[in-house]
Structure prediction request, 149 residues.
Amino acid sequence: MMLSVAASALLAFVLVGIPTSLQAATSTPARPRATAASPRMELQPTPSCPQNAVGDLNKAINFVQGQTWAERPGDNPLLLSPDLNACKVVLSVGHLSKTEEAALYAGAGSRLAITYRRDWARPSRSLLILWIVFGGAGVVWVFRRYARR
Prediction:
């Protein structure tokens, strides 16, 4: 009995180990994850935004896309949109820590404006009402069943 259990465990280890060792031997090197640094934006001067301001905008865009300011570089989805009328770069993010925000303002300069997306789903009132009714009924049932003992 003990011999069959040991043989089964050894067979399971061999079968599990062979595909992983073959996969490790034949795997290709992993491609780097696509980040916001992939597409580079280069802006051209306009009458409302002169060449030196465009240089500051390009510097801010390159700094933000580099993500050297991020605590976890691949976790923040970024949306950069240059506004040449106001000579600003608008960065739209979901959430940043205070240190990340301070690093962005320090590294990108005064040409950066940060906006936060508020696209969280609102809870449904009908689900809340159903939870109160049936959850409350369950509490009343438990109280009536077990409190009388």
User: Anything to note?
Assistant: The chain has four helices and three strands. Residues 20-38 have pLDDT under 50 and may be disordered. Residues 51-116 form one domain. The radius of gyration is 28 Å.
